[in-house]
Amino acid sequence: MNRDRHPLTLVTLCLAVLVAQLDTAVVNLATRPIGEHFHADVGALQWVLDSYNLVYAVLLLTGGLLADLYGRRRVFMAGLAIFVAASLVCAAAPGIAVLIAGRAGTGLGAALLVPASLSIIRVAWRDETRRGRALGVWAACNGLAFAIGPTLGGLLIHAFGWRSIFLVVIPVGAIALGLAPRAIEESADPHGRNFDATAQALGAIALGGLALAAIESHGHPVVAAITFIAATAALVLFLRVERRQGDAALVPIDIFRIDAFRGAIAATAAMTFGMYGVLFLLPLTWQSSGSLSATQAGLALMPMALVFVLLSPLSGRLTEKIGLRVMTSGGVAAIGAGLLVIALGADRASIAVDEIGLVLTGLGMGIATGPLMAAAVGAVGRARSGTASALINVARMAGATIGVAVLGAAYALAHGGADGLRLAMAAGGAVQLAGAATAWMAMREQRSATHRSARRIVGS
Known about the structure:
Blueprint: H1 6-27, H2 31-38, H3 42-70, H4 72-92, H5 96-124, H6 128-160, H7 164-167, H8 169-183, H9 197-216, H10 221-245, H11 259-289, H12 294-300, H13 302-311, H14 315-322, H15 324-344, H16 352-378, H17 385-413, H18 417-442, H19 447-458
């Protein structure tokens, strides 16, 4: 690819990812006005949120494979177009059922565009140093959505109503879609691979079952347990099918023999386990105790998001100076320290200690997210970049889903409040430190050895 295209390529990819993440960040604020407008019950409103998450989880692996097989730019643009069209459906929805369907459509679009965007970065930036810097900027756009999402969403809903939160992403997505043909060079690696329908079905059942079990864990525990068992059985069958497929598999099992890739997957899951647990439980505790209103709670979360945004673009350069191993394991450990600080300050009247913990959490996210993405997509050859991108996003999704469910259960076990927050954050901090240790051990080999292994196992 012509190097002159790279800045425009990164702008295009970042706009698309910002659109996807911003939509997720603001919809939570609109559930009450949506419920009042459609006279919808809590169950229907839950599916306004969860239909996106469920479809996204089910189709992530498919999105990564399609990018490798049929063209990364093509799949990226298809995902972005679907996302924009589905957002328009949401904005114009005449009833709650249409709105839920539109949200499912945005989940489909995200499942195509997010893995494709990471895969394009792997292919377009072949130099590791430049790729690391690009991924730092890409990660910052994820953080930017969390930083501006609640404030922007609140202002839009207050001034223009709930439909505006879906309309606002359409022009940004349309700009990215218009830039993509010029900014992104097409690439694909279909040789020796196929759609593998059996593995696709089993993988979708496993991922969808995990997401559905987490969704239903609080309201319908029996349904959640049955779904989790079905997902586990599907995962076992999936692994058996993939072992027989060898190099032609949807997810070649040998990819997990690469130390850097395995460490990146484990650390990423641990990272989102803690981050989403904090985002779920800390505002809940503040509001339940009467310490802060919903608006004040959103503002109180800003330090974490701002530190994340400010540090992410620098993560590539920092990695060059202190190394991938220190950045990844140190970043996840910093998140663990942040959760433990919040646990220590759980019974204090002031939120000052919480803010220190949030800053540490944002610090860890800022320095670890980009390098973890770089470790995952850089550990494999370009032919498997779509698969690697999908898998690292599966790890993000799984960590977030399980984190909210497990830490939410710990919070409830201690009857909520300060005691519940303390138990949940202590448990979350322990998981973070375990993830940091895993990253430290897995990334102990020299980078050159990792790359030799990657080329041997999954292609150049």
